[in-house]
Amino acid sequence: MYIIVALLSLAAASTVFFGRSRPLAAYALIAFYVGIDYSNYVFQLGDSLAGTLAKSFKEMLFFSLLLLVAYSVAKRRLVAKEVLVLLVASSLLLAYGAFSNGFFTAAVDWRDSVLPVVTAALLAACGLLTERRLSRLVTFFALVIAVNSIFAVFQYYTFNGDAQSSWRYDFLLQESLRADSYFETRLIEYQITRGGDLRSSGLFASALQYSYSAALACFYFYCASCRKLSRGKILAATFPITMMLVCALGVYVSQVRASLVIVAVSIAVHTFAFSAKGGGRYSVGRAGMIGFGCVGAFVTSLILFYGSFDASVQGRVPQYALVLEEFKLLGHGVGPFRGRFDSYYVYGLLTFGAVFILWVMWVFSLYKKAFGGLNREWTKGGDLMLRGFIFSSIVPALVIACFQHFSASLYYQLIWVMLFAASKNGRVSSSAANGLAVQEQPRELQSNRPQGVTGPLTQ
Questions:
Q1: Under 8 Å between Cβ of 421 and 129
Q2: Domain of 232?
Q3: Could you tell me the pLDDT band of residue 182, with boundaries at 50, 70 and 90?
């Protein structure tokens, strides 16, 4: 069975080389995130060679995309400068972490926090994330999460109150003890239950990771239903509304409060900073104000009502203070802080130092490149619902990063996928719309491509 799973992973990764089947690699990536934990539990993949290969799909896809980049270079095709810079920078981060903390420790952390970013950039650069393909990919993601939410709801309402009865208990215990032989087993129960109720997750081992995706899928179906209703298609809106409610129920049974923040902030940005008029209009300034306002409200409430919060929230405050004590200009390197903090920003500042500040500024530049300036009005005829969804989904991720560390999750991967795709497709579409020159590509790269989208690995 291990060999079968490994071969399937290898086959999915290799699809990037086979013309029309190239987009399958992105679908396989989503399926991998959703199913790897439960597959690991059922098939007991362990640390055998075949089991390691079966769990290494992300690495297989990464190296397949690298080979595609190398092939493009060999054919003397232009490669986007930002892609090359990202590859070099990510390699230096791994090297620095390996030198400071040991290769294995650094590689595991790099795989969680940096590899998803590089993979998303390569998927966009290789032409696998054109607007049409991205629309289908995000729809696939939302439907898969909706199905998983049904499973999660079933788990929640059939739970007998014993944490050890959940399939996740033994699995999480084995994985935790493998990583740390001194791990306190009582902490497993907190990951599985809250107040005696199950923190349900379906096929995911982590309720946190599932809930982020469920919140994103819930908002996707919200956008889809709004689009249908705005066109007067009441009957057609029945399906997305139903799926939205299913995912919302999934968020509820996961018992993760940060997911409620994702849904609420997404709807706020979509309502006050996005307009479907004139082919779609995007106010990056308003979106930023909403994001900073939410962060400010969180900090203010934490200061004024610290004693009113539970231990989970209060325990985050010393982590923020640790940044002032342990901060280094170049950071400590990937490895030592993996899984130690609840805030992605705390982790990033301690791990990458000043580089992380540049990282966050780069995220804002990508967001502005996609939706700000000349790109605030994309060309007509595209997927307006998808554009509004992506525009409204980035800011909530930046908000919850203040109090959640979501790297290594499907949510983290998809946010980067959408951000890179939007910055690439948005720039090209708006350039064409405003009469700016768009580099002409060889004829063989123009086949089967939606109008207004550049070829693989080019700008």
A1: yes
A2: 80-159+200-433
A3: low
